[in-house]
Amino acid sequence: MSLKESRSCPSQDKASIELSNKHPSASVGEANSTLTMTPAEERKLVRKIDLHMMPLMFVLYLLQYLDKTSLGYTAIMGILQDANLSGNQYSWASSFFYVGFLISSPLSSILLVKFPVAKVVVLTVLIWAGIQMVMAAGKSFASLAVLRILLGAFEAAIGPGFTIITSTWYKPSEHALRHGLWYGGASVAYIIGGIMAYGISHIDSAIKSWQFLFIIFGAATFVWGLIVWWLLPTSPQSAWFLNEHEKKLAFARVQGARHSTQTGKWNYAQMREAFIDPRSWLFFLLCVFSTIPGGGLTAFGSVIIKDFGYSVLQTQLLSMSVGAFLLFFVILTVAISMTLKNARCLSIAILNFISLAGVLMVKLLPVSNKIARLAGIWLVCAQASAFPTTLSLVSSNITGHTKKATVNGMLFVGFCVGYIIGPLTFIAQETPGYKTAFNIMVACYVLNIVIVMSMRQIMARWNKQRNQQHGAEAVLNGHILEHAGQDDLDETDWDNKEIRYSL
């Protein structure tokens, strides 16, 4: 592929980008033609893609988060009594979601390589929506445990799938914003979930309110899943909202930046490369140490806030405010990543530092100073907002379809491990201080800073080596500008020396 930007004209809108037409659907006569696109035309194309892709992904991720956390809402609706759940059984029922997620993550990675990513994701959505509705019939620990495992197993594809979809449609410099947009659905779900649960609990019906919640949440996901099945294209080449010329441009502009296409085959050489790439394990550890605090606070956040001395109603309202701060930090992180070049790793480190300050406020301030300690909880949200930026680092820096799927799988395995460990760090005998949990959170934030800055140093060194060996002219603002017409290859970032890593 050739992706050349003319810089002879002082006006950016008049500059042109030439794309070699190696589009898979191009005819033999078209194969060697050149497509031309001005930056203004590219911006128009990207806006069109955004308007059709982002709302579908945002709402679906919002519904995914509601379904995942639905058991927590039902705890105050009577499910503990109706299903005869003890406190420990309820905790295990919550954790079993991540057991299912963990078990199915490797299989999800394989399916996302062998079959169209969008269809794999939406098919799992429809299945888990059905499971969510069936949970209304769960009236014992055993039945709820099985259903939560199945729910986690089928939700395992959406995060890695959305990461691959983002890298299929967008260039590396565009990844942080798009990951932030669809991940923002989880933040909004955090805010509105409590309101929805409160409203459902006041529905006058013969059906128990907690059963109604499972049915309504599951039905909403199923209906939206059907909509996404019809509207979310499997690739730029099959996009119903693009004309033939736009399809070729959408494919070519991204292919010039990533040099990796889905072949439908699992590449074992790429899988081995993923396992020996040090960044894969750094991503894994970063996710583990990020979700240990997140898992603990998801399970015990409301308990901690209530222990500050707030009423049940105040606790519910203040817990919703946590979602607002999470959304704020997501927006802030995306803004930093878009404004400052090569600032993604640095922004993740800063967010962990903010969370470190927050957890120290909760841990060290006097119990009587509940406003400041509550502010500490809000600051702790900063680190959780780094997750979409972490996903964008994988999208931008890991190429090769199997390698990317493998690294995504490792990242989400780490996600599950952390969420399983997190609640276990809160020891009942240590209430309300939870000394062990907060000490572990401090250690996790410090380790995250070390890990992400080490990863940045590794990639910066690799960029320097490639510039010395191959020259820096091949790259402009993180985008590969020359690919010598090798569109049909599925190369990894180690194979393609023209790639420069986003930091």
UniProtKB/TrEMBL annotation:
Annotated InterPro entries: MFS, MFS_dom, MFS_trans_sf
The entry's keywords: Glycoprotein, Membrane, Transmembrane, Transmembrane helix, Transport
Record field: compositional bias (Polar residues): 8-33
Transmembrane segments: 95-113, 120-138, 144-169, 181-200, 212-232, 281-305, 317-338, 345-365, 371-394, 406-428, 440-459
GO molecular function: transmembrane transporter activity
Membrane topology label: Multi-pass membrane protein
Region (Disordered): 1-33
A cellular component term, taken from the record's GO annotations: membrane
PROSITE patterns referenced in this protein's UniProt entry, alphabetically: MFS (PS50850)
Assigned protein family: Belongs to the major facilitator superfamily. Allantoate permease family.
Protein name in UniProt: Major facilitator superfamily (MFS) profile domain-containing protein
